[in-house]
């Protein structure tokens, strides 16, 4: 994996007006390296420059530099293998980095599965419209592939995971990064909810008639998206989620997020 050809200048304390205190030197180093990741100077899989190079560039001590790296490690922006000679490697996180804390906050707040479903209905249908109207041909093709993968997941008893991934990825493909992150935060809850709703059913398979209806709905969304019929895609997906949600909530009307999370 590559290392950056040049390093960014260290951000000064003046770059944070209104701060209650001046940042520690380690925080400034971490902030500079974090900015390099955000701006793409350091990419996923890249190694940070060698320790000696970083110490010389920033003019800091080894303990200060290692404290800065620990800050980034705690944020899961870098991975450090103890005893390795290769140094710290950049690991650009996905929505999963906030999924568990988000689920914990929802659990602590007493949020119900109905609350989560309402939020998803507010997010996903507009995302379907955006995907239809402004999504790339590649994004449309990926949605089609995911829809066509549903039958295999039903046969394998992995419909809950595949369905949750379809919902999340559809929002991500819409091109709105914020909505994509929120959908990613809710994926684990959605997957566990679906798994709980079909638990007790032989082989974890919903009845064939219900599965066929679900599959046709996924394919219809792909059809509408490929036809770039934004309003129709939004309307269809809202109706799909309302109907599917009502079925999934049956018997779980008062179930709280905390009830299905570890």
Q: What would you report as the Rg, rounded to the nearest angstrom?
A: 23 Å
Q: Summarize the helix and strand pattern as letters.
A: HHHEEHHHHHHHHH
β-strand percent reads under 5%
Structural class: mainly alpha
Number of helices: 12
Averaging pLDDT over every residue, what do you get?
86
Main attributes?
mainly alpha; elongated; 262 residues
Short description:
65% of the residues lie in helices and 2% in strands. It is mainly alpha-helical.
Structure commentary:
The chain has 262 residues and is mostly helical. Helix content is 65%, strand content 2%. It is built from twelve helices and two strands; from the N terminus they run H-H-H-E-E-H-H-H-H-H-H-H-H-H. It has helices spanning 25-38, 51-58, 62-74, 96-109, 113-134, 137-148, 150-156, 159-173, 177-198, 208-226, 230-249, 257-260, and strands spanning 78-80, 88-90. Strands 1-2 form a two-stranded antiparallel sheet. A hairpin with a 7-residue loop joins strand 1 and strand 2. Helix 4 (96-109) packs across helix 9 (177-198), helix 5 (113-134) packs across helix 9 and helix 10 (208-226) packs antiparallel against helix 11 (230-249). The longest helix is centred in the middle third of the chain and has 22 residues, at 113-134. The two termini are 37 Å apart. 29% of the residues are buried. The model has no long low-confidence stretch (mean pLDDT 86).
């Amino acid at each position: 994996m590559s290392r950056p050809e040049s390093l960014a200048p260290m951000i000064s304390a003046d770059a944070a007006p209104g701060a209650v205190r001046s940042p520690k030197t380690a925080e400034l180093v971490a902030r500079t390296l974090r900015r390099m990741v955000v701006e793409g100077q350091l990419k996923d899989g890249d190694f940070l420059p060698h320790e000696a190079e970083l110490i010389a560039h920033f003019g800091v001590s080894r303990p200060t530099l290692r404290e800065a790296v620990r800050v980034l490690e705690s944020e899961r922006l870098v991975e450090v293998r103890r005893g390795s000679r290769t140094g710290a490697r950049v690991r650009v996180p996905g929505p999963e980095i906030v999924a568990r804390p988000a689920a914990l906050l929802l659990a602590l707040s007493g949020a119900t599965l109905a609350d989560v479903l309402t939020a998803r209905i507010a997010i996903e249908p507009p995302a379907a419209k955006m995907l239809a109207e402004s999504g790339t041909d590649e994004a449309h093709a990926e949605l089609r592939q995911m829809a066509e993968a549903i039958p295999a997941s039903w046969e394998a008893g992995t419909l809950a995971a595949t369905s949750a991934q379809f919902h999340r990825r559809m929002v991500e493909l819409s091109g709105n990064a914020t909505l994509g992150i929120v959908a990613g935060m809710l994926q684990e809850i959605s997957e566990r909810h679906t798994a709980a709703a079909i638990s007790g059913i032989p082989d974890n398979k919903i009845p064939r008639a219900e599965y066929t209806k679900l599959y046709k709905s996924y394919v219809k969304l792909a059809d509408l998206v490929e036809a770039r019929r934004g309003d129709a895609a939004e309307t269809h997906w809202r109706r799909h989620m309302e109907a599917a949600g009502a079925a999934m909530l049956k018997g779980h009307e008062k179930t709280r997020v905390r009830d299905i999370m570890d």
